[in-house]
Amino acid sequence: MTGRSREAIRLVLHVAEREHGERLDKLIASRVTGVSRSFVQQMMKRGEILVNGAPAKPAQRVRYGDRLEVSLPPAEPPVDLEPEYLPIPVIYEDDDIIVFDKPAGIVTHPAPGHERGTLVNALKAIRPDLAVQPSHRPGIVHRLDKDTSGLLVVAKTEPARLALLEQWQSRSVLKKYTALVHGIVEPDAGTIDAPISRDPREPTKMAVVPWGRPAITHFRVMERFRCATLLDVTIETGRTHQIRVHCAFIGHPVVGDQQYGGHRSFCVAVPRQFLHARSLRFRHPTTGQTIELETPLPSDLRRALASLREQEREAAACQSRA
């Protein structure tokens, strides 16, 4: 721990139109990571939450455009994380953020069963002086599943983390994925609006359930094959396993996804789940400028797609000769 004094963190939030009429304690608990409603209520009593400059009241409901000021308690000192040099490309970096092109097979941050070999371990190796909260996953504002590849943003300062966190929670970030799913998706485009929560039958999985948190996925067909469809996917929300759960829900699980039905036999070899976070667009946390980044399909998915296209050509040639 350094000798610097630990200061409270001041966070400013603005109420979105969709949040009009929501209870203040519920809203803040949903927008600020790691804060419960009961803790928010305690903060209200201590005068640590202001609404348009005035102390918050118990059971207060917010209005569209309200300015919320939250004084969070001082950040905890960082825990020790083992630095590890891992082959994770950095595609963008400045004083406030660093953007990785995460390969498949790497977990975003340490968790039970994955204490080492994570992106955070790699981050500590290349940027050892980074001191951002939370201590066990410094600077992390979103994550990608272990077997999903693609773009992942990390904040290098605490103000940057809070600014990015607000963008992710207000759904102002444009997140695009490429997914190959089983079967032929009929509509050229569509939206899946189905709530997601923990699967009551299998706690290690997520599921579409009536009591789940809102989850919205948009898709557009990029290419159709005899046994699969290549989709351009955009997500408004960022629920755990959202794309995988939603695709399985409509009967088209992601190819290679062992957890949500993609383990069924497929016409070509695919080494892992065919899901790649290819594009991100967000506001820079300090300058406010638009940052738009894109990364192509990694080589393992390109090879699988090439094999699928070759198989399609061969089938079409056989059909034309028949």
Give an overview in words.
It is a single chain. This protein has about 325 residues and is α+β, with helices and mostly antiparallel strands. The protein has three domains: about 10-70, Structural Genomics Hypothetical 15.5 Kd Protein In mrcA-pckA Intergenic Region, Chain A; about 75-170, 2-Layer Sandwich (Pseudouridine synthase), CATH 3.30.2350; about 175-275 and about 305-310, 2-Layer Sandwich (Pseudouridine synthase). It contains six helices and 15 strands. It has helices at about 25-30, 35-45, 120-125, 160-170, 240-250, 300-320, and strands spanning about 10-15, 50, 55, 65-70, 90-95, 95-100, 150-155, 175-180, 190-195, 195-200, 205-210, 215-225, 230-235, 275-285, 290-295. The strands form three sheets. Strands 5, 6, 7, 8, 9, 12, 13, 14 and 15 form a nine-stranded mixed β-sheet that branches. A hairpin with a 2-residue loop joins strand 2 (about 50) and strand 3 (about 55). Helix 1 crosses helix 2 (about 35-45). The longest helix has 23 residues, at about 300-320. It is globular. The N and C termini lie far apart (about 75 Å).
